[in-house]
């Protein structure tokens, strides 16, 4: 545990406070995102540094007390194994890639205990998997990294997953990871110590804008694809919404108010591919994500991604990725 880490810096913020330091516990899970963890803990360090006061303390734990390897290969040391936490502590599960494998029954039991004894619990990046395993997300709003949302929904279809940057619902706090962790922790600093300090921490992070809970994790389709044609965007959004269905391209064009030939020209001009190729790529990418993060059988993945038969799916998957879906599934899981 950090016993009042107050680094020395040049910038300073005068803050009068009599409140006790808040304590954060970070449970580091295997293959966690170092970016998300750093983006969460650094605002706390900066707040202490700017004020010259111990506003925040933190403890890093792991399941067994041993160091934990991040998804980038860097090993992080911890203070101790999972155990007692201070009253009023915030307890965050820090995860990353392969989150299903990272959260054991022991981790789930410990997170459930933290929740039942009144702690605020949270998840960074894919940390919501640990909270779901613990059974404490029913009826709660939460989020996790957009890359993992599709397989999460397949595993936990009954839970209320949101697509926002971060979500605070009662004593559950989650964020999508990456820079969204900074936005979440800036929010906590703002609520505890006000706008002057939170703005100063934001500036030290070179973060420029404090994004709100309502902001989306991803750029709009228009921004990410670099297109503004509303007809084309309408078609692409329909593909996303109905990817598990059989899609008739003539009907799609008609509903968008364009001819089939016009639709073909729009895709060729803006995306350098045909509508059929774009849709196939979309289906295959989604199938790959499902097999990488869930235990769904290949036949169910095929259905979930709109393929009429498993044979057709397997053929297209091998053509696209150079390996059969069965082999890919075994390797991933």
TrEMBL record:
Any one Pfam family here would be HTH_18
> Could you tell me the keywords of this UniProt record?
DNA-binding, Transcription, Transcription regulation
Q: Name one GO molecular function term.
A: DNA-binding transcription factor activity
Among InterPro entries, the record links this protein to: Class_I_gatase-like, DJ-1/PfpI, Homeodomain-like_sf, HTH_AraC, HTH_AraC-typ_CS, INH-QAR, Tscrpt_reg_AraC-type_HTH
What is the originating organism of this protein?
Shimia gijangensis
Domain of life of the native organism: Bacteria
Q: Please report the name of this protein according to its UniProt entry.
A: Transcriptional regulator, AraC family with amidase-like domain
**Segments forming domain HTH araC/xylS-type:** 233-331
